[in-house]
Design brief:
Strand 2, helix 3 and strand 3 form a beta-alpha-beta unit. The protein is of the alpha/beta class. The chain contains 22 helices and eight strands. It has four domains: 80 residues, GMP Synthetase, Chain A, domain 3; 176 residues, P-loop containing nucleotide triphosphate hydrolases (Rossmann fold); 75 residues, Helicase, Ruva Protein, domain 3; 92 residues, DnaA protein, C-terminal DNA-binding domain (Chromosomal Replication Initiator Protein Dnaa, Chain: A), CATH 1.10.1750. The structure holds adenosine-5'-diphosphate and magnesium ion. Magnesium ion binds next to helix 7.
Length: 496
């Protein structure tokens, strides 16, 4: 096979592969993730694909690799190793019209943004290749005082940086999206909507975007606020008759970062004002970053038109960190705070606190101060006593089989006792299967354990239930949404 192909030769081949892919994925998926990719070269082992940014690699690898490989096999006879090449300057802009991609998934062209840096400022997207940013690179030469002033004005805290954010499988996607937005504000994902449970790093990653932009773009105006501040400012402005001033303040920023947007729920007039602010910024090609504890469509009493705008860009979820990431976070914090606890204690903390990084930090702080004050070695037994309240709090937030059964039963309006009963009418059997499926997915429990917890059912029954639900979820979007909603409710211990 040819080592290198000219563009003309690559194109028909790639078109063929793309057309095979397009038959297997939804139109939205195709337009969003494949329409902008290009085949650069291929040989007998490898295919090099040009993509606009790191997110594409992540997304295609995570979700569409099988489809892509199938298409490659069909077109070329056998599989190839796919390599991704980020091609900056790939035709992100302008592609919207041509491809008909959903509005906002790719932001419109010809926008102006102050001080376009020439190089990519955010290295962390490629951790393996990350180098220390050169201190004398023009974009990095910053006036410390200027930055301090701008940060204060923007409402940003300099503790929350990309550098101090530990990347793991739980947050890789959000991190890559945030880096992309910080590198090219208003160009790629607008708005960027980040959601996830308490203490999982929403505020940190959003502030990191703001901080990064202030460092790399001298003249950019960034504003970070919570939705409560927005609400209070609005009420104040109405009372003082200063709406014009308020609008000017919010609409002249280049980057608006609003945290905890769920608190706009039920506040009709504030929502109305925010709707116009959003439109003005979006139409002016300004970057908007939002966060919430849940996806837009699940925010209670949020107007549909806002829900749909929040979904225009990219919606990315933060999950609780896995064991390795929890350990890496603890080590990072020890380094940043210049404290030390023994490895044994680090493992103990990572083992016992799963759901909330803020809580993990609190526990580390407490054990570290004990160690430094008492000067004696902290035993695990002592750590357990020291952290009793924190561990208790954690236990309340831990997913259990009981909680899964209770949440699913409440959602489907059946009795919790029906989860374990022998009764089999469909209105009970189906929710029971959903709960079994969730137990398997969320707890990674064995079929036998699950069977035991669901009234002594056997291994095969549980396996069948999980298979059925998986099959139905593939066929029905509605069920997929319900299961995802249930998962969120179970994780955050929320009422249906
Ligand atoms: P949220 O806004 O989601 O409630 P925060 O952003 O306030 O959470 O994070 C809580 C604490 O945990 C912060 O001190 C933050 O620095 C820390 N944290 C969360 N995730 C990470 C991470 N991946 N790496 C480093 N620190 C993190
Ligand atoms: Mg927060």
């Amino acid at each position: 096979m040819d080592e290198l192909l000219s563009n003309q030769e690559c194109k028909p081949l790639w078109d063929k592969i793309l057309s095979l892919v397009s038959e297997r994925v939804s139109e939205d998926t195709f337009l969003r993730w494949f329409a902008l990719t290009k085949l650069k070269r291929f040989d007998e082992e490898t295919i090099d694909l040009a993509i606009p940014n790191e997110i594409y690699r992540f997304w295609i690898e995570e979700n569409h690799m099988m489809t892509l490989q199938d298409a490659i096999i069909q077109a070329l006879g056998f599989p190839r190793k796919v390599r991704f090449i980020i091609e900056s300057g790939a035709p992100l802009e302008g592609a919207t019209e041509e491809t008909g991609a959903p509005r906002g998934s790719l932001a419109p062209e010809n926008r102006e943004f102050p001080n376009e840096p020439t190089s990519h400022p955010v290295q962390a997207v490629h951790p393996e290749k990350a180098e220390e940013p050169e201190s004398d690179s023009p974009a990095r030469v910053v006036d410390g005082e200027r930055l301090t002033r701008q940060r204060a004005k923007a409402g940003l805290n300099d503790r929350y940086l990309f550098d101090s954010f530990v990347v793991g499988s739980n947050n890789r996607f959000v991190h890559a999206a945030a880096c992309a937005v910080a590198t090219k504000p208003s160009r790629i994902y607008n708005p960027l909507f980040i959601y996830g449970g308490v203490g999982l790093g929403k505020t940190h990653i959003m502030q990191a975007i703001g901080n990064e932009i202030l460092v790399t773009r001298k003249n950019a105006t960034v504003l970070y606020i919570t939705s409560e501040t927005f609400t209070n400012d609005f009420i104040d402005a109405v009372q003082k008759g200063e709406l014009v001033k308020l609008r000017k303040r919010y609409r002249q920023v280049d980057v608006l970062i609003i945290d905890d947007i769920q608190f706009l729920g039920g506040k009709e007039r504030t929502q109305e004002e925010f709707f116009h602010t959003f439109n003005a910024l979006f139409d002016g090609h300004k970057q908007i970053v939002l966060s919430s504890d849940r996806p837009p469509s699940e925010i209670r009493q949020l107007e549909n038109r806002l829900v749909s705008r929040f979904e225009w860009g990219l919606t990315a979820e933060l999950h609780p960190p896995d064991a390795e990431t929890r350990i890496a976070i603890l080590r990072k914090k020890m380094q940043l705070w210049d404290v030390r606890v023994e490895d044994e204690v680090v493992f103990f903390l990572a083992d016992r606190i799963h759901n909330n990084v803020r809580r993990l930090e609190g526990a580390l702080m407490r054990t570290a101060s004990f160690a430094s004050l008492s000067g004696s070695k902290l035993t695990l037994q002592r750590a357990e006593e020291l952290l009793r309240d924190i561990l208790h709090e954690e236990a309340r937030n831990t997913v259990t089989l009981d909680r899964i059964q209770k949440t699913v039963a409440e959602y489907y309006d059946i009795r919790v006792a029906d989860m374990t009963s022998k009764r089999r009418p469909q209105n009970i059997a189906f929710p029971r299967q959903v709960a079994m499926y969730l137990s398997r997915e969320m707890l990674k429990a064995s079929y036998a354990e699950i069977g035991e917890a669901f009234g002594g059912r056997d291994h095969g029954t549980v396996m069948h239930a999980c298979k059925q639900i998986r099959k139905k979820m593939n066929a029905h979007n509605d069920l997929r949404r319900v299961v995802s909603l249930l998962e969120t409710m179970i994780r955050s211990n929320r009422e249906p």
